[in-house]
TrEMBL record:
<keyword id="KW-0812">Transmembrane</keyword>
<feature type="transmembrane region" description="Helical">
    <location>
        <begin position="32"/>
        <end position="51"/>
    </location>
</feature>
<keyword id="KW-1133">Transmembrane helix</keyword>
<keyword id="KW-0472">Membrane</keyword>
<dbReference type="Pfam" id="PF24107">
    <property type="entry name" value="DUF7382"/>
</dbReference>
<dbReference type="InterPro" id="IPR055806">
    <property type="entry name" value="DUF7382"/>
</dbReference>
<protein>
    <recommendedName>
        <fullName>DUF7382 domain-containing protein</fullName>
    </recommendedName>
</protein>
<feature type="domain" description="DUF7382">
    <location>
        <begin position="56"/>
        <end position="120"/>
    </location>
</feature>
Length: 160
């Protein structure tokens, strides 16, 4: 079965049987797919390990407004800024925006040493509107590993 083209004993000669074998071309994509799947799985495991290192991860903060249900008119909302363990976070900026209830502009306040920000708001409802919401965002203290990426509790404004 060997001819002069497939003689591998001489340096610089080509193997004719390898060039004629179509299975090598068919097997290559399958091997690449397997290598890709194994590589992605390995990368996923490594990224999970890196995410568990405290120095590289960020901590989500949450806003807990009091009261959660209010009426239209001028009032003060006390918003506690807490981390996932329930510890209060000081020096965070709390921003209250109008949602389906209206506010004139934005209302902001900084959380004190106790982690509570007192925000003065004056929500309004439209005519024939029975309820609405105010949304709350938190800007964590500068230089901290805190973030506020998930939605916070909204304040419900109910007509009297």
């Amino acid at each position: 079965m060997l001819d002069s083209k497939s003689d591998t004993s001489k340096p610089g000669t080509r193997t004719g049987s390898f060039l004629d074998d179509r299975r090598a071309i068919e097997g290559l994509p399958v091997r690449l797919v397997i290598a890709l799947v194994v590589g992605v799985a390995s990368l996923s495991v490594m990224m999970g390990m890196i995410g568990d290192i405290d120095g590289l991860s960020s901590t989500e903060v949450d806003a807990q407004p009091q009261p959660e249900v209010t009426t239209p008119g001028s009032q003060t909302l006390d918003v506690a800024v807490v981390d996932p363990d329930g510890n209060r976070v000081s020096d965070a900026t709390v921003i209250v925006r109008g949602g389906s209830a209206r506010l004139d502009g934005l209302a902001t306040a900084k959380s004190g040493p106790d982690g509570i920000a007192s925000v003065d708001v004056s929500p309004k409802l439209g005519s024939n509107q029975l309820d609405g919401t105010l949304s709350i965002d938190v800007k964590p203290p500068a230089g901290s590993d805190f973030v506020d990426e998930r939605g916070n509790t909204e304040v419900l404004v109910v007509a009297e």
